[in-house]
Protein 1
Amino acid sequence: MAGIGSSNLLNMTRRGFLGAAAAAGAGLLAGCGSSASSGSGTTAATEAATTDDGTYTLVEDGKLTVASDLAFPPFDSLDGDTPVGFDVDISKAIAEKLGLECSYLPAQNFDTIIPTIKAGGKADIGNSAFTITDERKEEIDFTDPYLDSNQSIATASTAERKSSEDLNAEGVKIAVQSGTTGEEWARENIPEATVVTLDDPIQCMTGVQQGLYDACVADEPVLSYLVKNSYTDCEVTEEIPTGEQYGIVVSKDNPNLTKAINKALAEMVDDGTMDSLQQQWFGTSL
């Protein structure tokens, strides 16, 4: 797994972490219809997006433009200025199968990505380990799920309070990433504690390490990765079986793009790409 040492990680906010930029030439989507011209939000573009011939709109011709927070390792992060991670490689592979170049926007706050995709005109997809929820589906469309996940709790290894039951007390501070299912779970299941919202799990875990917070609640693959690679004086103390699934965010006005991505995801499973990326980033098939 491509890694960054703990000293580098601790100097990063949710804007920073690992790498490799994206590729592939512009072109047409074989077997799924060609992409329409730039998605300017015009009536013609909207009509093209909803036709039955497989066409879809793009913010920029020949490119799949992606919005991400780029601070959720090992899913997405920055190596210098280069986006890297499991989700980044997923986006690149999808773009290649669609005959497009993959282009990432500068890092976005996680809780602004769905509104950005809904508004249109800035990014074609949001790909940042989004849990598929009914509430989110009221605003945007999701692709088919591409990975399962749970929530988890991490504390300092020397902490006295480690379980959700022990942490459910006045005066306890729980760090979470704003706008996530981890925040939602913490508020519902640890109601006596104070939930503190931050931009990303790197900030959360740095605060736990420094003693500012008693625990962090976040996605299990992310916390496991962080405590193994950087926050080695912390540990995952509880995995919470929430049974979540990740999907890619697409505008409801662009249904044929959702269909094209679903086709690409299915091909990635069939041709072994998905398994290979899981082995690369998680060390196992999930």
Protein 2
Amino acid sequence: MSANESPIFTEHLPGASHWSMVIPRGRTVRFRDVEGGANVSVLFYNPNNLLERYNAPDTLKCQHTFKLTQGHCLYSDMGRIFCSIVRDDTGWIDTVCGVTNKAKVAEKWGAKDYQNERNLWKQNGYDALLVEIAKYGLGKRDLAANLNLFSKVTTDAEGNLGYVPKHSVAGSCIDLRFEMDTLLVMTTCPHPLNPAQDYPHQAVDVDVLASDPVTEDDLCLNSHPENRRGFANNNRYFTEPDMILPSQT
């Protein structure tokens, strides 16, 4: 995929918003931090079987990592790969902190509703995701652990989590190459550990582009042995010949 390729589709997501769309297999979604300091919380579901969704524990343990970045794959709870991270200008995607809720936002930044504040209201990530998945007949029990794109969280010697301010700068991009049809759900509400005094309203641009075919030397395919098995599971799911097979060694 060329960085200069014209997008098939483009959307601008203001801060404190939510959105979703079905991404076909063979497309790449590029997220672009418009102003710096953005956060995009994302979830993934199989639109043809909504019981299949993103599985954070399997994604992390099979790739032996606490963070995600370029070269990693995002797994479903069926052992298939929703998408591969083919570009990450930030070098670190938070996998463990979840999203804010109404009480936490009110405690940290005060309460403002849409009826009175319009686009300057203080939405929370939990309700934003819940509203979005409700469009597909899903509810509270269907909310899984999410990713926070553009956000970095580290730990100290005692295991305490710490948010890294200004981790993402204006213009930073994260590209997800979709290996199967996927319902992508997202919100631009602030990260739950963001220490900003004022409620952040950082916007993100989203482009959908055509993907190049996966080749034998693909970084995501080869970064961990389990990824080859994940790609093979995808090929079997689509009843295609196993053009990419797990290593026999």
